[in-house]
Design a protein that fits this description.
Length: about 500
Amino acid sequence: MLDHLPALQVIVPLISAPVCMLVTRAVWAWRIATAVSIAAFAMAVLLAREVSSKGVLSYHLGGWVPPLGIEYRIDHLSAYILIIVAATASITMIAAHKSIGQEVADRKSGLFYSAYLLCLTGLLGIVATGDAFNIFVFLEISSLSSYALIAMGRDRRALTASYQYLIMGTIGATFILIGVGLLYMLTGTLNIMDLQQRIPAVIGSRTLHAAFAFLTAGVSLKIALFPLHLWLPNAYAYAPSMMTVFLSATATKVSLYVLFRFFFGLFSPEVSFEYFYLGKILLPLSIVAILTASFIAIFQDNIKRMLAYSSVAQIGYMTLGIGLGTQAGSIASLVYLLNHALIKGGLFLAIACVVFRIQSVQLEDFNGLGRRMPWTMSAILLLGLGLIGVPLTAGFISKWYILSAAIEQDRWLSAIVILGGSLLAILYVWKIVEHAYFRPSPNPARDIPATREAPLTMLVPLWLLVAGNFYLGLDTSFSAGFADTAMRAFFP
């Protein structure tokens, strides 16, 4: 069975998706989705152990040897991202039942969980496959299901957000497909390892330049790199609350994995940064993203939109690390990727707890909430410290690694921007804290009693993420250790 884990990682959620549509009760659809998510996490952990002990795992679909056949290839980078995606999926589904029951009509529950499993299939498939065209295929599976999931939000604006995401996502996917097609026309192969060996022989080709340009634009759209981020704030703000948790912690992170896989694996770092000047694209856009998105977040009254713009800024930190073009910068980005998935997923889960009780994400409705929902608001406060980068939190480790990598290259402007972004984060996190703890409730006579906290099924996963925020701030053996090993393959 262990030999087939790379394929089972993708197949199990894929064949479970239609089962959720066939069950008649919402609770059974949720149980199936939760069980599959936990199984995916268990398989991801087993794959990580196998990779750590045996090295890269290569699985040949149908017994066809690559590059003729399709290969699933799990290395340290793949195993690292698989754990992030599957762990997020498990925590999201454990907490999702009551929230989804409130925000999604019962008649749509089966469709919701089916679309969720398809989205999970696509994300896991992107990470597991070693074929460039299959990355596009799985990217579309995850994107199409994401559009449907966002559209199920109870606010009518969810339809507009989904449509906007569809248009932008389709453009990005088309660019990626054109880039992959040009590479196939040039080299005659789609296997990533085979492409890596053949590209140096055609390095001067204009077709290769065009392919690199299309791939850069397409991946930038998918990761919501400023200024191609316009789909993200509305998608996060109007999707069902638990879907925002899942997408914020996985979708852009897997797209960043695609950036690593294309520009560090398919192309080498030397080719990407010294020949195609990728750093000159990523660094300026990352700096603008950190400052602009953080500044916009300060003025948001819808907290989900505030955190969405914060995500655009945090993506800027990750692409800044990549844009440095060094092993240290790339390790920093991978560490940041994991820690941001944990912190931002936790913040959106806390917001889901609030929405479950007060049915609002407007800042003014958070007045006095620190006394009415003390556990939830304490979690927001502690995770907010991680988002700012306060010592002892995972966020501090992330920003320390990015800052160290920038200073190592004498990128003093980048270092100043990293610190400035943290100061701006204090301002929008403080707005939530101020309203929750220092402003009275507008209707104290009608306050929800203090015992009316979110259900334990939502609070326990939330506090697991809070604990993870501090654990990864103290012990970096997994995050930094795995990231370091993964990057050694690209920076020999």
